[in-house]
Task: structure prediction
Amino acid sequence: MNASALNTKKEVVCPKWIMPIADALSRVEQTIDSATNSSVYIASQISSYVFAAGGKRIRPCLVLLSAGISGGDLEAEEVIRMAAAVELIHTASLLHDDVIDSAVARRGVHTANAVWGNTISVLGGDFLLSKAFCLLGDIAGNEVISVLSRAAVAMTESELLQSICENDIDLWRSEYWRIIRGKTASLMGACCESGAILARASDVARSALRAYGESLGVAFQITDDLLDIAGDPAITGKQIGSDLANGKFTLPVLLALKRKDFPRELLSKDRIPIEQARRIAEFVVQCGAVAEAKQVAEKIAAQARGALNIFEQSPYKCALEILASSVVAREF
Amino acid sequence: MNASALNTKKEVVCPKWIMPIADALSRVEQTIDSATNSSVYIASQISSYVFAAGGKRIRPCLVLLSAGISGGDLEAEEVIRMAAAVELIHTASLLHDDVIDSAVARRGVHTANAVWGNTISVLGGDFLLSKAFCLLGDIAGNEVISVLSRAAVAMTESELLQSICENDIDLWRSEYWRIIRGKTASLMGACCESGAILARASDVARSALRAYGESLGVAFQITDDLLDIAGDPAITGKQIGSDLANGKFTLPVLLALKRKDFPRELLSKDRIPIEQARRIAEFVVQCGAVAEAKQVAEKIAAQARGALNIFEQSPYKCALEILASSVVAREF
Result:
């Protein structure tokens, strides 16, 4: 497959709430570009490819908005670097996830492993992860390095746990919440906490933002899991039932499994073929489990907004509130 | 394959020069053990497995000895943590290398990917890399984080370059030195430099130790490359010609390629079968290219020793000198 043919730069989605951080976000993009520039051409190439593929840049937004709501300077070099670093860590994990899931498409374009193969993708992920810590190494004060490296550990632990749970409904039932907390909430919590740290926020503000980020992450991940079952493949860029076919039993499926008429004959001890996974997904929608899981996500998003009560009104608070509502309303 | 059956704890090789740092080294082992302990069982299990498989612990020794020769306190918590962190980074890279090379044995035992598969090994590497930065996040002062993260980047860039050069003799000829500097010398240089930084050494001492570590790394890697061609598989735990079979043309082969009677018919545009690689290796030994490459390694090891001239005699200096000699004389 030809990389350059696929590498069409997508516009980063830019809703109105982003306005107060638009300039800072543009500097984050420049920082990502320059940080991932390498004398080894393939390292630059794979980085440009994955970042040009788009992405919502939610994690950098969380760093910037958390610094903003805490009264910090969004344009401070350390805040910009932190915001770039969290996106590098997130993208590194996506590169490795796609290798693990043998995914061929993400965000509507071919995955890096589909273009260059697994070796380059594994090493590309390592490159981005290491570069993230390079960016942070230059930030005065290493509290944020502790926060971020602990999140990176939680992410890999969660992926390991997910891998062990593969295709085992009972394990998924007992570990689902632990998996999504580690997989998504830990990094989003770390983004908010590090924004607060860099803005020299009080301990109370720091804890509140951490709580906001973690709840947002859980709500975000449940929504991701819902979109795998009930999303529009033309918008999500993913096939319906991909998670099931990869041995992942997420909240809507776990809720549907409580129904007596769940089509158990479609389950399998081995991997579920995608066609079968799609039929299970249809049941999960029809039985109301998707709606039920969506309510859970909305409740947790409301908890995230509630964590912001201690802050005075500001464009940053407003943006964080809108963000919490939009992650559960999104279609991709 | 059963992990527990293979997981026989090997004694860490303990030559006499290690005596001045023996206590500190034992604390490094404890730190590695506790740092890699995880509530996710498979994360602890894969870590215990790879560290129990042995290894020379050269990189932690370099941190400790560099701190020692610079007059620092070997037992300081930050020095111990740094020494543990560099071994975590090194081991993370081995886990990913073994996935990339589809290696089944290392240090005479089955590789993690042979036991658990590629997914667990990729994630296990990510776990160790993230844990390394967790250990460093707690060290006051982040200069060492910059030094170490830059080394981690250089390592992945080098692996990417190596992957691009695969099976291409001309590329290997032009990139060999760059590859081995990134692959091995960058981390060994960083180990020595960070030991110096933590001991608050002068800039001159820091540069000298960096130069020592980099030369040691180059000499070490050339020796590794030699052992792939001329080592004893019973001692190295690797098949003769593995590098060639993996598309790597290292110094002894590149030197042999200058001989007119090189058996070019054994080369291939695709991967070279291991039996053919073994026959090439035989020629490389017989034509004297192994001896020639060994001389190059010895000369660079002498340069490493020379870099220590600015230091007064001490058990640490003596150990670093012996280490430089022993890396080129080693059989595994």
User: Anything to note?
Assistant: Chain A touches chain B through 49 residues (CB under 8 Å). Residues 69 and 316 of chain A are 5 Å apart (CA to CA). The domain at 15-304 of chain A is CATH 1.10.600.10 (Farnesyl Diphosphate Synthase).
